[in-house]
Amino acid sequence: MSSTLFRTKKVEQSILDTEEPEHALKKSLSALDLTVFGVGVIIGTGIFVLTGTVAKNNAGPATALAFMAAGVACALAALCYAEFASTVPVAGSAYTFSYASLGELPAWIIGWDLVLEFALGTAVVAVGWSGYIQSLMENAGWTMPAGLGSREGADAFGFDILAAALVLVLTGILVLGMKLSARITSLVVAIKVTVVLVVIIAGAFLVKGENYDPFIPKEKPVEAGSSLDSPLIQLMFGWAPSNFGVMGIFTAASVVFFAFIGFDVVATAAEETKNPQRDMPRGILGSLAICTTLYVLVSIVVTGMQHYSQLSVDAPLADAFKATGHPWFAGFISFGAAVGLTTVCMILLLGQTRVFFAMSRDGLLPRFFSRVHPRFKTPHRPTILLGVIIAILAGFTPLTELAALVNIGTLFAFVVVAIGVIILRKSRPDLPRAFRTPWVPVIPILSVCASLWLMINLPAETWVRFAVWMAAGFLLYFLYGRTHSRLARQKSGEEQPSVGGGTP
User: Fold this and answer.
1) Band of residue 150 on the pLDDT scale cut at 50, 70, 90
2) Which residue blocks in 55-103 are alpha helix, DSSP H?
């Protein structure tokens, strides 16, 4: 039993599978495309909302240090992703990496985890986008009909038609091809980065030195019901994290980590990259470096414009400009946030469909979903299926409480990838590596520790929901995946391994 659960798929076999005409994705992406994808998915709600939340409740002006800490945690994971993505340039990201290093069951678990992460992430962002659009419409005197706009409470009935429509439109774009997706993303990212730069440059002239005093608040009471009051931490260590002082910076880092979610999605496009060995590390590390720099600068400026205790939690950047007598910038920022969220939604949807496609190509999900479109060379079947499901999810389901599942899912993937780098270095030292994570095993171990530290700062309820989803995944694997996987069929003689250029 253990030999079947932890059977690994050779890297060479994974690469050969990508050459089967019916299951091959079109290679059209460059390093610039990947960097744009990374920036497009990372810069979203986090920078426009979380800055005020953590500054007011945790770190004050030291929010910049919290962004740095979260960026370092992501950089450790990014180094591991860069090695894997350049060594195993196959769709699926952490799922594919796990299959090559840890085995089939761990690969299934991480793939199942990523399906949840990207689905909820897409739906949450779509609902946020809908809120921004409705706000802009109301400013112009237009109001959505009752029952068709965003729902304020969990008990409110209605269907968020704008959120659902966004997901369906982006689904159609992804079906039509990656290059079209890349061009649209480039245009939107240019708008989004312009807005961020305007905030930094214009805000710098409105900074007041006294707003940085104190830079690290010493006394700030823990707010009741805060997501940082984790019962899990109290259970494990007998104490709850301080919500102020130096510890406030680290607890703030676990919150602003949400703003970095998405750089790992770049790895899902490895199979569609022209030169993945060279371009994947550049795209992953480059996009993370750009976004971390912008985040730090924005947090420094906004806490200098307005005292952290007076910052708005809902729209800190826009409201900071209003407070300093520049309301025009508020509308400009809201427009940029609304436009920018479209790329976040599209790239998260892209990542999910590629993971689903890779799992179906390996037989762990029905292989019906692994055939690409004969003209566009995109995985149209899983894209359409998942797009419709997420559109319904975004339209009907209140997702506020489920958003934390996106964080825990991402961090879990980081842990698995870091461990996988260590194992693959030991089991396959002969494997050609265009990019090598430095200081192995030190960097991967630090990545695991950093990710676990951020995970334990999440509420116990999030862990329970995550465990339920994982239990459902285990059940599905043992009922279907274990016996239908291509490795199982090859072992029983029902299927021959790929030899490249054709379908077995």
Assistant:
1) low
2) 63-87, 94-101
